[in-house]
Amino acid sequence: MIEVKQRQTAKFLKEKILELLQSYGVSITQLLAVTCDNGANMVAAVKQLQKQYVADHPSLEAYDDDSDDDDEARERLIEDLMEELQKSVSLIRCAVHTMQLAVTDIVKATDVTIKEITTIAKNTRKIGYKAMFEYNKISVPPFYSRTRWNGVYKMLNYFKQHEEFYKDIGRQYPELDLTNHWNYIDEYVSAFEPVFVCTNKMQAKHVSLSDFYVHWLNTVMQVGLLTNSNLAKSLVLSLTERLKPLKNNMAFKAALLVDPRFNYLNSKTLSPEDKEQTRSFMLATWERIKQLDPNSSKEHQDTAQQSKPTNSFDTFLTRLFGGLPPESDQNTKPLIQQLNALDLEDHQSFSFDVWSHWKNRLKTYPELSKLALVFLSVPSNQVNVERSFSGMALTLTERRTNLSEESLENILLIKLNVDLIDKIIPENGFQ
């Protein structure tokens, strides 16, 4: 995380990214993929630090501060940056952010009905109602903001959970009456609950590209079951359409190719043309890996030499009937043949642990397993950026604004990588 004061052009951002990588001893040749979104969450986080946005008491006007023109400008910036980096790395759009765009396609945050319900939610915080809520031991509805995923859903779900209570008080207090909105609330919560569940699953520490695909397709299925809901029908179409650009990425296709939940005998997940292009991409990636780590290729060659068949009868039969000598194990076959053989894998359940599957094959299929694990390591989302800015907001408080850039970076480095401390520093390392 770095502070930039210059105009954020794609070329400038590219240079800054490369400088940052260099400071950690990472070259551009070591990058396979970069996961990014349009940066709206980062812009909002900076606004929060500058106190231009008050999270505890958001207004509708504050919610609408970012205009469509600003969104389009950020989108163009990311597109330009992708073009700058495309020659070296694969650019992957954040799946969580893309899912939220699918939601926005259907129900805009400025929707009239949502605005009316939000006004009622704000009314509940008036001092005159405080005693009533405390007596009934019911909390006031949560506010939402542009940078909080599923915020509208949480607010409407709150009202659904307390429907009887609000029906009672609505008869007494007209400004808290939701009579005209209950049908909308029920339909919205039912349609968007699968999206809410999916978004939470995709905010795990690491969600591979194929795992995200499982979650996304499951969401489409769950929403599609609501055949009587117009919101649900529109949401299915939006989710399906928003998924298309994500599926065009080569790293995504490679992750599906090594995942037996999607690539198996007679599977149509990838077309023959897609498979051919993906295999070529994976072979080129393996060549890059070998250049960075020559030992990886040498280890495989040594294993192959040790595994060569020595049975004299096999040799006799080969001379008698022609062809090539049989190989003692699949792991001695060229990588391209191993990639082709993936099309013959057994179909696995959606709960299948693909990561463990390839970890267990490291000894028998060293090259293919290493390559598969590389593509399964590509993150499908950029949730860690949100966590990073949250960490910065908690660190760079009002009374700590004089922290130097180096001190702030060191504090965040530790805060955001606590789980790595024990691996880096031996036990009792400070003694």
Question: Element order, helices and strands?
Answer: HEHHHEHHHHHHHHHHHHHHHHHH
Count, helices: 22
Q: Give the N-to-C terminal Cα separation.
A: 31 Å
* Shape, per Cα inertia axes: globular
Structural class by sheet pairing and helices: mainly alpha
Largest β-sheet summary: 2 strands, parallel
Estimated helix fraction: 55-70%
What is the domain total for the residues? 3
Number of strands: 2
The Cα radius of gyration reads 27 Å
Task: Indicate the low-confidence ranges by residue numbers.
Answer: 40-69
Strand order within the widest beta sheet: 1-2
Into which percentage range does the β-strand content fall?
Answer: under 5%
Folded structure, characterized:
- The chain is 60% helix and 2% strand.
- It has three domains: 1-57 and 76-93, no CATH class; 97-241, no CATH class; 249-292 and 333-394, no CATH class.
- Mean pLDDT is 80; it is low at 40-69.
- The two termini are 31 Å apart.
- It has 431 residues and is mainly alpha-helical.
- It has helices at residues 10-23, 40-49, 60-63, 68-85, 95-106, 112-123, 130-135, 151-161, 163-172, 182-201, 209-224, 230-247, 250-257, 272-292, 294-306, 312-321, 335-341, 354-359, 366-376, 383-395, 405-415, 418-424; strands at residues 33-36, 90-93.
- It holds the Pfam family Dimer_Tnp_hAT.
- Residues 345-417 form the HAT C-terminal dimerisation domain.
- It is found in: Nucleus.
